[in-house]
Specification:
The structure is a single chain. The protein is α+β, with helices and mostly antiparallel strands and 145 residues long. Helices cover 21% and strands 41% of the residues. Strands 1, 2, 3, 4, 5, 6, 7 and 8 form an eight-stranded antiparallel β-sheet that branches. A hairpin with a 4-residue loop joins β4 and β5. The longest helix is centred in the C-terminal third of the chain and has 15 residues.
Length: 145
């Protein structure tokens, strides 16, 4: 079910603040999906979802490859992040870019620690995948138990 990004319901926003393992779906060069477990944070005011990752990971390589691909519809790679808890689910879709800027990475690490209740492990190759969210889907009627 599509959800209006300008009027996200409180239970939907609450679900994105709860501690859940999520998935990130990127596309390989051949167009097949690559789905991996990740931690995601979402800022509804900025409409940005963030995933911290190693700069050497496949997910980062997929985003970088798609960012400059000929025929791309716009800047960034088309991706989706999703989380599920029982019958409740939420997906955010948008265009992803990768940033190595220390301030942006530190901000993403801080947000991760806030949502997941622990600091991410040290990783000198860390980058942040920033997703400019343009679509929200889900079925969240009440806070998940």
């Amino acid at each position: 079910m599509a959800i209006d990004l300008g009027a996200l319901p409180a239970p939907y926003l609450s679900f994105w603040r709860e501690r859940h393992v999520c998935t990130l779906t990127t596309l390989r060069r051949d167009g097949t999906p690559h789905v991996v477990p990740v931690g995601v944070t979402y800022d509804p005011e900025e409409r940005v979802a963030r995933v911290i990752a190693s700069g050497t990971s496949r997910k980062v390589a997929h985003v970088l490859a798609a960012t400059g691909a000929a025929g791309a519809e716009g800047p960034g790679a088309r991706v989706a992040v999703c989380q599920v808890a029982g019958r409740h689910w939420a997906t955010l879709e948008g265009r992803a870019t990768v940033s190595e800027e220390p301030e942006r990475v530190a901000d993403a690490e801080r947000r991760y620690a806030e949502r997941y209740g622990r600091n991410p492990r040290e990783n000198p190759a860390r980058v942040v995948i920033e997703i400019a969210v343009d679509r929200a889907l889900g079925n969240v009627k009440e806070p998940a138990a």
